[in-house]
Design goal:
Order of helices and strands: EEHEEHHH
CATH class of the largest domain: Alpha Beta
Helix content: 25-40%
Strand content: 15-25%
CATH superfamily of the largest domain: P-loop containing nucleotide triphosphate hydrolases
Number of helices: 4
Number of strands: 4
CATH architecture of the largest domain: 3-Layer(aba) Sandwich
Number of domains: 2
Distance between the termini: 19 Å
């Protein structure tokens, strides 16, 4: 797996003002590498990640995942939102199963994968609770394992 960020720029226009958040950001991440984005609030870290995920269009440049241009969200990428973004009407169990159902994973395999992920995140016993019944840390872990549930490309966790 290889992710290439090539000259990504992002400009926001608001009330006649121009705010350049990203200006020709480039880097490559190869399989097995661990990368961290650091910077002050408002510097464009989340904007860059949402462009990589395909949730937002860049003003310039391109994102390549395995030499394919990223133009929209895809099941080959997982994304954990800052605000957890768990579906509030679904239990932890239903949230974790959701991406696997979307990919058409057989029921038995979905159930086995869910059990593995719950154990990994130490969330056994809370799978029937709703997000509003969880602590912040439990919500974050549930969101993280939901992102892994669909086995995005290059995910190191395989159960």
């Amino acid at each position: 797996m290889e992710l290439k960020v090539e000259k990504i720029s992002k400009v926001f226009h608001s009330n006649g003002n121009i705010n350049t958040v990203l200006k020709e950001v480039s880097f490559t991440i190869r399989e097995g590498q661990f990368v961290t984005l650091l910077g002050p609030s408002g510097c464009g870290k989340t904007t860059l990640l949402t462009i990589i995920a395909g949730f937002q269009k860049a003003s310039g440049g391109r994102i390549l995942l395995n030499d394919q241009v990223v133009q929209k969200p895809g099941s080959d990428r997982g994304f954990v939102f800052q605000d957890y973004a768990l579906f509030p009407w679904m239990t932890v169990r239903e949230n974790i199963l959701f991406p696997m159902k979307q990919k058409g994973v057989p029921k038995k395999e979905r159930e086995e994968r869910m059990e593995e992920l719950l154990a990994m995140a130490r969330l056994e016993g809370v799978e029937r609770l709703y997000p509003s019944q969880l602590s912040g840390g439990m919500k974050q872990r549930a969101a993280f394992i939901r992102a892994l549930a669909g086995r995005p490309a290059g995910s190191a966790v395989d159960g």
